[in-house]
Each structure stands twice: as structure tokens, then as C-alpha cells.
Amino acid sequence: MLLFGFLPINLRSGSLTNDLWDMGNTFELFLDTVYAPWRREIPDLPNHIERLEIDSGEHLPCLPGDIYFVGGGTLGKYERKRPIRYAAQEELIFVPLERHRFRLLALESSLVYFMDRKGLYELSIRYPTHIILYDLLRERHQQDIAFREYLLALDKRDRLEAFRQRYGNVLNLVPRTEIASFLCLSREYLRQIF
Description:
Layout: H1 26-34, H2 38-41, E1 50-54, E2 59-60, E3 67-72, E4 75-79, E5 82-87, E6 92-94, E7 102-106, E8 110-115, H3 117-126, H4 130-153, H5 156-167, H6 176-183, H7 187-193
Helix pairs in contact: 6-7
């Protein structure tokens, strides 16, 4: 298995009753699998992470250097209106430092953990071993984004099935024309196989 701003976001504290939010701190559990000694070596890390609960249709700010972790729900990454990536639970999104034109949109109510560039730099100064965790997270992010390259390398008959296996819930969240665009298939072809 491959592994992680235009409108204001609605930040809420507390927890929702939905099971999605009752999973505990999924980000800390994820970090345990990526770099087990993080709690000992970077004890202040949780103080630099914000928990965002966002509703379907809300945008995330996407400031340069931001790091997002999807704790639950699904996000879409769009350049203008064209889908370029989907991110589901336990996937990471690193916003590049250079200028970009993409936006992140919650496709359903989602739980997102977030660290800005300032927090990242502060941790790097205080805890030099932080760079190990950062490198491991970047590697996971690269695996996440490599899925689309893998998908587009498949024969067009196999793309929908591979997409369905990884992002089956997205099929119910976006129009088929968007799925066709993401898979680089014609709408007519997608209609025949879907």
C-alpha cells in the first residue's frame, strides 16, 4: 500500500460525535509508525501542531511551507479547477515554498493536523534530530503523490479500478467529469466503464 486559500476556514474546538473524530490523535499514532523516538527526541512537537475540523467545501489556506496531515475525511488538491491530487486519511500534503496556484478543498467533513513553516523552523532550531522526522515525512509525501504517476502509467482500462481501490469514497464526492479529468480519460470512456 502506498502511503502523507481562498475562503476562510471554520476552526472549531472540541470533538464531533462522528466516529471519524473518536479515533484518538491519529497524527501522533501516525508519527509513531514513521519515527518511533519522536516523543523523546522532539517532545514539543504537539505544541506546534494545530487540529483543524473543516466542513465539506471549505478551503485550507495553503501558505508556503505548510504541512497538512489528513486525520480523517478527504481533501482534493486543485490547480485552477483541475484535480491534481486527492488526499485521504493518513496522507500528507507539503505546500511548496515557491509560488503556486493550487488550492486544497475539503470534499467531506475532515480532520486535518497542520504545522506552519514558522513552527517547523522553531523545532529545527531546538531539536536538530527533527530533520530525521522531517525527511521521513517528506518520503511518505513523495509516496503519496507518486500514486498518480503510477495510476497514469496504467492502461486506461485499469486506471479506474486502481483509483477505486485507493480512493473509492471519492467516487461519491465529486462529479464523474472530475474523475475523468483526474484519470486522463474521456468522459465517454469513463461512462462506458463506470
